[in-house]
Amino acid sequence: MLRNTLTAGVIVATVFSAAPAVAQVDMGAYLAGRQAATDNDFAGGALYFGQALEADPGNPLLLDSALASLVALGEFDKAEILAREMVRLERTSQIADLTINVVDASTGNWDGIFEALEGGRSIGPLIDGLTQAWAHMGNGNIRRALGQFDQVIETEGMEVYGVTHKAYALASVGNFEEAEALFSTRGTDMEYSRQSAIARIEILSQLGRNADALAILQAIFGARLDPAVADLRDALEAGETLPYSAVQTPRAGMADMYLTVAVLVQSDAPDTYTLLFARAATYLAPENTPAVLMSAALLERLGQYDLANTAYAGIARDDPSFSSAEIGRAEVLRAAGKRDAAIEVLEALSRSYPDLPQVFAGKGDVLREANRLNDAKTAYTRALSLYDDTAPAKWIVYYTRGITNHQLDLWPEAEADFRAALALAPDNPQVLNYLGYSLVERGEKLDEALAMIETAVAAMPDNGAIVDSLGWVLFRLGQYEEAVAVLERAVTLEAVDPVINDHLGDAFWAVGRTTEARFQWQRALSFGPEDVDAQRIRDKLDRGLDLVLISEGEEPIRLARGND
Questions:
Q1: 450-499 tens-digit pLDDT
Q2: Is the domain of 84 the same as that of 130?
Q3: Cβ(425)–Cβ(402) under 8 Å?
Q4: Is 220 a member of any domain?
Q5: Which domain holds residue 554?
């Protein structure tokens, strides 16, 4: 093939079109690539490592780093060229083997997959075993495929995955009886992914067993159904026969395999590693919505908001998960500082889905951040009217509407919302802290506020803001020595918070440690407090806390003695 006649330098130039035309040593490009990798900037990594490869085309570290960037971008076509060059250079690389495996599956080059495995290239036992089975299916050799699935089933720790994929394979050729027999043999020990659960439901429906399919649906998904599963339930209840659509081809089977691996490793592996498998799944099956959503969520966590936005936008409007994807897209736009765009997405979504509470809750969050408080309150109120009292998210909306009412200076309504949130989520530390601190600031129900904040601190003892609240309520109760001890701990937890440093300064003043008080107020000023707070701190530095309190109509503390 043509690629075998290319020099390594030409290969690099082919992949990285933005790289310099003339190779030259460029340590700057290498260092920029490393920084891009640290920042999870995959486009930058692909560019800069590509430039570095111009000077050293066979460098395995550069090749692997460039490969990782390209796969994280989902650009397997470009990654393939570098991966095959690594194989030609006899470099060991899991990412190269993954890339070639994915590209061969996408093009139906099943013999190429067998050649790679026979050549000792391996991604991992589970992937290798299932890949061989699906490659036999791709070559039309069902008998050998089923035998390979059986080998996976017989391997310790892999049984459930072998059973699932063998059932997929049987169902894909219309053998629903044997597929269901496999699932039923596992009984209540069967572990389901979303995809395998839907596959079994569809298989049972194909067998004319809608009642059993409904029972499985209820047992696995419970009462809270996403739109796609709700559609399945409605069709089953209407007596319709569901088509088998879960995994219909070897390519789709391998996509499900890669998504399964991504789910398995995500709790222990870095998000950048998990993303490689999620991208493999989406490349092989762009219609695999869970894989697309997982890729988007990983990119969001990695701070790659534009890439996450693009991934979310790939969900088709007629997909049952479209609303979830749009909510995710609005969130990444919000995180990227594009609030107007996020509001626009949610405004359109609220018109298309007027009965979906999550849309209005998300809309309220963005509007509140944009300081459109009355509009935010309206959105939160709409969300609360759509949630039922068993919805896990309802307390959060009461809480955020309470914050909005507090910012609107509607304290009775805010307090009612906070207490409604606590009725649904008793002892929630965030709500207890916000309500308790607000009561302290208002000088109301201080004993109750103290109990609330003590409960919050017990739940989150290393949260500086909550520990500060405890110190501040002790201060307001006149327990100054105790307040100093607590606020000193709060400052160790949140060293550069201007409010906490200001509070500690007040507590020092109250116990007569005026030099330390002024030091803390100076620190608080250096950390950029709000303008109104900054002015008050300067006033305390000029005149002392007692005179400031008198000018505000408050009683002076009177424990401090003189100046330093």
A1: 999 999 999 999 999 999 999 999 998 899 999 999 999 999 999 999 99
A2: no
A3: no
A4: yes
A5: 496-564
Mean pLDDT of the chain: 90
Give the confidence band of 441 by pLDDT, cuts at 50, 70, 90.
confident
Under DSSP, the state recorded for 240 is P
Helix (H, G, I), strand (E, B) or coil at 293: helix
b/e 467-478 (16+ beta carbons within 10 angstroms → b): bbbbbbbbbbee
More confident residue, 494 or 19: 494
Dihedral, CA of residue 398, residue 402, residue 404 and residue 407, to nearest 10: -170
pLDDT tens, residue by residue, 522-550: 999 999 999 999 999 999 999 999 999 99
Residues 128, 59 share a domain: no
Question: Looking at 221, 255, 285, which one is the last position of a domain?
Answer: 285
Contact 259, 281 (CB under 8 A): yes
CB 323, CB 353: distance < 8 Å? yes
CA 360 to CA 398: how far, in whole Å? 13
Q: How far apart are CA 45 and CA 38, in angstroms?
A: 9
Q: Are residues 126 and 208 in the same domain?
A: yes
pLDDT at 559: 61
Predicted confidence at residue 564, as pLDDT, reads 46
More confident residue, 388 or 422: 422
Rounded Cα–Cα distance for residues 382 and 376 (Å): 10
Q: Are residues 58 and 159 in the same domain?
A: no
Residue 35 shares a structural domain with residue 139:
no
CB atoms within 10 A of CB 497: 19
CB atoms within 10 A of CB 68: 23
Please state the pTM of the whole predicted model: 0.79
CA distance 300 to 289: 16
Domain check: are 123 and 229 in the same one?
yes
Alpha-carbon Rg for the chain, nearest whole angstrom, is 30
193/229 same-domain check: yes
Judge if 164 and 87 occupy the same domain.
Answer: no
Domain count, the chain: 3
Instruction: Give the confidence band of 30 by pLDDT, cuts at 50, 70, 90.
Output: confident
In this structure, the chain runs to a length of 564
